[in-house]
Amino acid sequence: MISSLLSKDLPRSRILTAMLAAIFAALALAPFIFPGTRPLDVAAKVCVFVLLVASYDLLLGYTGIVSFAHTMFFGIGGYGIAIALSRMEVGWSAIALGTAAAVALSLVLSFLVGLFSLRVKAIFFAMITLAVASFFAILASQLSDITGGEDGITFKVPELLRPAYRLLEEPFLGVTVGGRFVTYYLVFGTSLLLFLALLRVVNSPFGRVLLAIRENDFRAEALGYRTVIYRTIANCLGAVVATLAGVLYALWLRYTGPNTTLDFGIMIDILLMVVIGGMGTMYGAVIGAAIFVVAQNYLQEAMKAFSEALRGVPLLPDLFHPDRWLLWLGVLFVLSVYYFPHGIVGQLRAGTKK
Amino acid sequence: MKRIDWIPPALLLAIVLGALAMIGSPSTWVTLTVAGLAMGLLIFIMASGLTLVFGLMDVMNFAHGLFIAIGAYVAASTIRLFAGAAGADSFLANLGAIVPAMLAAAAAAGLLGLAFERIIIKPVYGQHLKQILITTGGMIVAEQLIHVFWGPDLLPLPRPATLRGSFLVGDVAIEKFRLIAVVVGLAVFAAMLLLLNRTKIGLLIRAGVENKEMVEAMGYRIRRLFVGVFVAGSALAGLGGALWGMYQESVTVHIGASMMVLIFIVIIIGGLGSIGGCFAGALLVGLVANYVGFLAPKIALGSNILLMVLVLLWRPQGLYPVSKQ
Description:
Chain A has helices at about 1-5, 15-30, 30-35, 35-65, 70-85, 90-115, 120-140, 145, 180-200, 205-215, 215-220, 225-255, 260, 265-275, 285-310, 315-320, 325-340, 345-354, and strands spanning about 155, 255. By secondary structure, chain A is an all-alpha fold. In chain A, strands 1-2 form a two-stranded antiparallel sheet. In chain A, helix 4 (about 35-65) packs across helix 15 (about 285-310), helix 5 packs across helix 12 and helix 6 packs antiparallel against helix 12 (about 225-255). Chain B is globular and about 60 Å long. The interface between A and B is large, with 40 and 37 residues.
């Protein structure tokens, strides 16, 4: 049963299985295990980023194309639902309409960009997507009538999802079952479903063709597969899932703005997560996103203590300044690309094979 | 000698003249044209190294913006060192501050380029996917290191006294610093043309862009040539960064990354690997951005992307496609 849920693509390593199970359990039971607002925020962010990074892995790890426009689709999802909920009557139909419009826009854009630039080299696609994404980010901050500019949009969600709402009068196992509880499980459940769907896609015959294109696109073409079409479909699929991740994230934050969705820094974060976790493995997205988001929220405190312990030594306290946590993840990223091309997941699997 | 394709320059001229007709007022037109040329030449200085490196070795350096940022930061520090000369009210004294600043910026960026080529890029030749990832990773690390050395805050980079403000020729206002940018940019372009067309090294570089195996078969070490081009390209990016920093009068770590988008558009428009194309593309982008910004501010943001799409629809390989064997 589990095997078919995971599309017969098992973790293939005991430690990896244990890690995945631990992450899954922690996320599934987050409201019960970690009471408080901040840990739940972290858990929800992990769910969304697992999905976002997994959809990016479909492009980078499985199809071998580098896109810098993934945050653009993430942002389209966030803005789609934010605009719908702030303009229309707050309700589920607004959510549905906003999501549908965002998905449609993402599909059209990813199709156009893909058709326009996927014929040529990977580098060309990377450059074009970078240009398009930065243009979109500027557009979103300039069209302040629609997008709220730099301030973004704060919006109301349907009553069921509001923090003040109570589903059960009495706390259940010591946890208040309210709007946040419902929203968290909405985010968690949708992310899980879509992640399993992605796992299904990469293990389908379609996924095999993508792998073939990644390994040798010339040969795949010679075997009769229209590589442009496969690449474009993968690109559109990744874009749609990223859009849905954007919708979930906006629902959780009840806010959408340039800094939470379109910022180039988030694109860098996604790259770090997918490479450190492991490209072309899907599970790498889970490991990478979990490590990264937890590091983002808790590593800084550890570094602060370390930096203060080094006080008096020249330069070192600056290197370990809490704001420099990205430096160390960047170093890890570079080392990963050189020495562990399949990231943490690849290392764990290689360890089992011996 | 190859015949020169005159259509892109003619197109540029047509745009400049067409803009005169649409803008109407000659004085505004001169101001805009000078601004566009200055911007275009600055972009050309920064982009030329990147496109040559790509043409020669098929390496796309996504961390090129880093050299721009380093150039700007080093220039800011140097100008602070020469505060006396920079603050003086004489043009020559001011020049004595900005020339060392530009040289220091170019030298620092060049050295960094050498280290970057050795450590980051050398292991991943021929692997595009890894190149994109590794250079992006190098950029993340280096941006953080800039924070470590210069601090996370915005760094002011004041222009020397005599370079502020503008000349008035009749009723035409021309910002002084833009003239400096035009002069430096044209000097760089002329030097590059001379080097590429009149020297043995230039001949080898041009030959390497077209067919590097053949150059190697003739017994030349293309690797060394490439390192030289990479360092020179980085130094030019540093020089461009210094000028751009002075133009904006402040430096942040994102100065390079924000230019990268324009640089990519320029080298795609020009044709990847082509210096002449890079020059034409940079001028095209600079001029069109300024004209459109004046004529139709609403679509100014999209003008670069629109320009790129139009050029690629017309010539899918860029203005001057590089023929590869």
